[in-house]
Amino acid sequence: MDENIYKAYEDEIQALEDEIRLLTEKYEDIRQESTFFSDEEILKSIELIQRETQGETKGRESPADLKAQLESLETNLSFLMKFTGFQFTSHSKKTVEKTRNRTVQKHRLSGKCHSLPFQLEFQLLEMQGNEKVSAVVSDLSIIMESREDSNVSKFLSSTEERGDLLTFFRSLSTYAEWYEHRRCTFLHFK
């Protein structure tokens, strides 16, 4: 009986050690991301937040105006979702590297286009030059359930190699729309 108690305690200790390890890793990630900002940038952000909380910012909009803007944005978003068929369900962004004129971010994006779910993972390199910002997509990885179709599989592979997000979204929109039409047609004949 005592061995069962010791086993339960050891399992609990192991679970707590695992949780501590995960929290430590998460803390290190957050700390690493915050070190990308200079002390000056951090102080400016703190001052801005303090001014906002003390009500020193001028030109604040009323809650009614903000509510109207929010409703307008929701209407526009709803229209775009119906028009394009895209519905994004999650997005995460992690800054990998940040220097004065270069930023590398890792993005994860998932959603559905009509009835086809998809997931994207890519790195975005933004470089700022003489009044010009350029962005380059790299390490693009696309996950879709409809990879059984060899043509779709070839298309996704070539899109991943080129890192061409615009072509992916345009083609996925058209393909998903016709995929939905084919699915409904086959259901009609069943």
From TrEMBL:
Keywords of this entry: Coiled coil
Sections of the chain in a coiled coil: 6-33
Origin superkingdom: Eukaryota
Record InterPro entries: CENP-P
Gene: Cenpp
Signal sequence coordinates: none
One example of a Gene Ontology biological process annotation: CENP-A containing chromatin assembly
GO cellular component: chromosome, centromeric region; nucleus
Protein known as: CENPP protein
Short name of one Pfam family: CENP-P
